[in-house]
Amino acid sequence: MSIRVLTEEVASQIAAGEVVERPASVVKELVENSIDAGARDVQVEARGGGKQLIRVSDDGCGVPAADAELAFHRHSTSKLTTADDLIRITTLGFRGEALASIAAVSRVTFVTRSADDTVGALLRLEGLRVTTRQESGRPPGTAVTVEDLFFNIPARLKFLRTERTERRHIDSWLTRYAMAYPEVRFTLNHDGRTVFQSPGLGPDRLRDVLVEVYGLEIGAAVIEILPNGQLASSIQVAGFVGPPSLHRANRGYITLFVNGRWVQDIRLSYAIIQAYHTLLPSGRYPLAVVMVCVPPEEVDVNVHPAKSEVRFRDGDAVFRAVQKAVRHTLLERSPVPIAARALTAWPGSSAQRQSERRERLAELRPQSTGEQLRFGEKPIDGAGDVRAPSKDRLPPLRVVGQLGVTYVVAEGPEGLYLIDQHAAHERVLFERLLAARKRADTASQELLEPQPVELSTDAAGLLEEHLETLASLGFQMEPFGGTTMLVRALPALVAQDNPRQVLEDIAAAFLAGDAPLAGKVEEAVARSVCKRAAIKAGQVMAQAEMEELIRALEQCTSSRTCPHGRPTMIHLSVEQLAREFGR
Ligand code: ADP
Ligand code: MG
Hints:
Elements: H1 8-19, H2 23-36, E1 41-47, E2 53-58, H3 98-104, E3 107-113, E4 120-126, E5 129-136, E6 141-147, H4 154-159, H5 163-180, E7 185-190, E8 193-197, H6 206-214, H7 216-221, E9 223-224, E10 236-241, E11 247-248, E12 254-258, E13 261-263, H8 266-275, E14 285-286, E15 288-293, E16 299-300, E17 311-312, H9 315-333, H10 338-343, H11 350-363, E18 398-403, E19 407-412, E20 415-420, H12 421-438, E21 444-454, H13 457-465, H14 467-472, E22 476-479, E23 484-491, H15 499-511, H16 521-533, H17 543-555, E24 569-573, H18 574-580
Parallel strand pairs: 1-7, 12-15
Antiparallel strand pairs: 1-2, 2-6, 3-4, 3-6, 4-5, 7-8, 9-10, 10-15, 11-14, 12-13, 16-17, 18-19, 19-20, 20-24, 21-23, 22-23
Helix pairs in contact: 1-3, 2-5, 5-6, 8-9, 12-16, 12-17, 13-15, 15-16
The structure holds adenosine-5'-diphosphate (ADP) and magnesium ion.
C-alpha cells in the first residue's frame, strides 16, 4: 500500500478520539473552558446521557466575535504562546484542542459575547465545517451546545454505554469541578431535571459543596485539613478528610486535585490511605477531597491529552506533604468514639496526649453495621492492630433502652455496652442460618407458585454457578432460559421480599468482592440474606424485642462483630468510666 497523507477530516477525527472519549469528556472540556474564562456561574445541560445533547453555558469573559471561528482551529488557544509557557501553566486548558476535537465529532453551536463587544457571535459547525455564522444577542459569556456526539463515527458511538452510565460519568466530572472550584456555582440538569447545584459561595466554602455532593451528614462530618505549618513549604495541602468512622469499600471516594485539576494518581491516593493507617478496618478506604497546590513549574500536566495525569518534579516531597497533612489532621481533629473523645481533655504534654490517644483508639472496639455508609455507624476500628477481645461471648446484659433508634444501651458486670441493633441482629441471624445449614434443616419457604425472575446478565451467570450452595441455604431455583431463573423457594428469612432484589443483592455482594471463592460462597450468600433480613437502624424496638436480641447475641460465638467483620458494639469498662469522670 502506498503511503498517503490522511485527509484533514480523518486526521482530526483520530486526534479527537484522544480528547473526546465519551459525553462526559465533552462536559469536562467545556467546563474547563468556562472556568478558565473566569465564569462564576456554569450551567450544564444534558439529554440522553449527553449522547443527544450537551450544553454548557457560562458567564465568563466570552470570545471576541472576530475570534470565534479561530477558537475551533486545532492548536488555537488564548492561554499559551511560547513553549516556555508550558513550564508555568495556570489554566486548565492550554493545548487548544478541545473545541476542534469536539467539533470534529459532533454538531456544535457556539454562542459567545465578550464584555467588550456589543453583540455576540453565533457559529454552527458540523464535523468542523462552519454551516452558520451570524450575530447574536446574549449577555457576556459563552454557551456551547454539542449535539449528536459521534454522529460521524459509528464505531465510537457503538462503544458508548447505557444512558445511565454516561450520565454517571458526567455527574462525576461535574461534582469534581464543583469541589475544586467552590467559588463557582455549577448547575447540572439531565433531561430537564436539575440534579445537582453547588452553592458557589466562595473559595473557602468547600464544605458547602461537599454537602451537595455527599449529603448533609457527610458534609458535617468531614474534617478540614489543618495547615500543619506548611506556610513555609511550596507544597500546600488543603481540603477535607472523612473521620475514620466514615469508610467505604473502595477508593472511589478519594478525590485529588493538583493545582485545581482533578487527577488520578495512585501514589497520592496511597499517601492518603496510609495516613489512616490503623484507623480504618482493613479493606476499607477513607473519604477525602484533597487539593494539592505546587508552583506550576514543579508539575508537568502535559502528560496526556485528557490531562488527568500529572508528573511532579519531586514526587516524594508531594507524597510526604499529603501524608503528613492528613495524618496530622486526623490525630488532632478526628472525632473519636465517645470514650476516646474525653481523652483529649487530659492533662499532659501534647505529644504524650497524642500517643495516649492513639493507644486508646487502638483499644476501642466500637460499633458498626451493614454496607450502607451512614455517618456514625462505622467508627474507628484499629483493625490489624487491635488485640482480639479477651472473650467473644458476652456476659449477661441488662437492657437499659434504645438510643437514637439505632443502638441498644445495655449494662453488664463489666460496664456499659452500646450495641448496634442492625449489626447485632445480622450476627444473630448469620450464626443461626449457618447452624441450620449444618443440621441440613435450613428453613426454606416455597413461593405460592414458581416465579420466573429476570436477572441482569452478571447476576444470572454468577448465581447459576452456585445453584447447589444456594439450594443448601434454602434457594430452590433453576435456569429458565436467557437470564431468567425460575424461583420455587427462598430462605424463610427473606421469603417476604422481592425475589429479584434478593438475588441481585447476592450477585452484587459477589461482584463487590464478597468473593464467591470455593468454600466462601455459602458465607457470602448467608451474609447477604442476613443483611437484608436484619432489623435496620431507625427501627423502633420494644423493650422485649431488645431483650430478645441481646439474649440471642449472648448465645453467639462471635458476638462482637457482625458477619462482615465489623464491630457490633462499643464497650466502656467500669474502669474507663471511672477514669473519664476523674474518680
Ligand atoms: P484550550 O482551552 O486548550 O485553549 P480549547 O479548544 O478548549 O483550547 O479552546 C480554544 C480557545 O477558545 C480558548 O483558548 C479560549 O480562548 C476560547 N474559549 C473556549 N471556550 C471558552 C469559553 N467558555 N469562554 C471564553 N473563551 C473560550
Ligand atoms: Mg479547553
